[in-house]
Amino acid sequence: MREAGDELLVVLKKIEDDKLLTPLQIVQGLSGTGVAHLGVVKQFLAETIEKERRDIENVSHFRAGESTNLESQVD
Questions:
Q1: Domain segments of the chain: what residues?
Q2: What is the DSSP secondary structure assignment for residue 20, as one 8-state letter?
Q3: What radius of gyration, in Å, describes the C-alpha atoms of the chain?
Q4: Contact indicator for 9, 44 with CB cutoff of 8 Å
Q5: Is the dihedral of CA 42, 32, 8, 3 positive or negative?
Q6: Which end of the chain is more exposed for a tag (fewer CB within 10 A), N or C?
Q7: Distance (Å, whole) CA 12 – CA 35
């Protein structure tokens, strides 16, 4: 049973990486089936949220650096 969950996570990751569906669309699609157990969906969502947090932090750091560069150019 664990292998099926792991395989499903691989498929979900591929769908997300190739931008075939958004995470919300994936969860909505899985909610109508008996294929995915709650643990698999929970793990997928946790990984997706963590990835989004990292992306937000990266953008924030980039913007802070750009702001500092602009300030130094104005002086």
A1: 2-74
A2: S
A3: 18
A4: yes
A5: positive
A6: C
A7: 12
Query: Which residues are within 8 A (CB) of 44 and not within 5 positions of it... i.e. 6 or more apart?
Result: 9, 12, 23, 26, 27
The tens digit of pLDDT for each residue in 14-53 reads: 998 899 999 889 888 888 777 777 888 888 899 999 999 9
Tokens 């989004």 identify what position? 52
Q: Which two tokens stand for residue 14?
A: 């591929």
pTM for the whole structure? 0.66
Q: Which amino acid is at 16?
A: E
Q: DSSP H helical segments within 18-37, as ranges? A: 23-31
User: Chain centroid to CA 52: how far?
Assistant: 5
Q: Provide the token pair at 24.
A: 């919300």
Of 42, 18, 46, 17, nearest to 30 (Cα)? Answer: 42
DSSP 45: H
